[in-house]
Amino acid sequence: MFSVSERDQLRRDLVNAADVDPRVVGAALTGSAAVGKEDRWSDIDFALSVERDLDAVVDDWTALMYACGAVGHLDVRRGAVLFRVFLMRSTLQVDVAFWPSDEFGATGPTFKLLFGETNDLPQAGQPDRDGLIGLAWLYALHARSSIARGRSWQAVYMINGMRDHVMSLWCLREGVNAVQGRGLDDLQDAGAFTGTLVLSTHPDELARAFHVLTGLLLGEITEPELREAVRGLSPAAANRP
Fold it and tell me: Which pLDDT does position 236 carry in this prediction?
């Protein structure tokens, strides 16, 4: 397990490496450290503005991270930006974002410029309500068919996916962060979801959790026709107001 001092030293080393790399024309801290909310479990989020030789910079910085103790990495892409996520031997997560310099800038409040210049970028927002509802009922349809077919583990997967999207809908309604579960612990009554946890793969238990979750989803749907269609997925939900 990494220590706070180890994390802080690695971050200083990365900032120094960016400062002396002539291809890197800007750098920023992102995530919790950018807004003074870092805790014992926080990872390192570091963004680089790269003016030239982007692929070579990615290769060189990847080699640097492995020299510093990385044991694996994965890539997440958003347009021209590469987010390379490293797992360190100490279990510390280090996210290094490689931005073309003409696209470098803050897309949210957790951005602290260390050096260089930024561009004005559209701010990332909350997920779309209609999209969350659509995915929730899609998972619900597959949960119902999985239960009916006796495919218990697929049903668990579908119920869990449905719950994720209904939880995000609650976050939207209460005005907290609806991205990746970050606002769930700020909900007024997140305990309402306790009954949606699947406690076994027995068909009756799957049906019970699914019925409870369908009722919670109905509470987020205002469109009459869609509400009635979703209500029809669960006999238990049909008795709810």
Answer: 52
Which pLDDT value is given to residue 240?
Answer: 42
| CB-based contacts of 133, cutoff 8 Å, min separation 6 | 165, 169, 217, 220, 221, 226
Per DSSP, what are the bridge partners of residue 24? Answer: 50
Handedness of CA 137, 142, 144, 145 (dihedral sign): positive
Other beta carbons within 10 angstroms of residue 74's beta carbon come to 9
pLDDT (0 to 100) of residue 194 = 93
CB 134 within 8 A of CB 185: no
Alpha helices in 94-128, H assignment, sequence order:
none
Contact 47, 61 (CB under 8 A): no
What is the Cα gyration radius of the chain? 22
- Closest listed residue to residue 80, CA positions, set 99, 102, 58: 99
Tell me the residue type at 103. Answer: E
**Consecutive 10-residue runs of the chain (241 residues): their mean pLDDT?**
96 98 97 95 97 96 97 95 97 97 94 97 89 94 94 97 96 92 92 94 95 93 89 58 41
| DSSP letters spanning 152-191 | HHHHHHHHHHHHHHHHHHHHHHHTS--STTTTGGGSTTGG
Per DSSP, what are the bridge partners of residue 93? 87
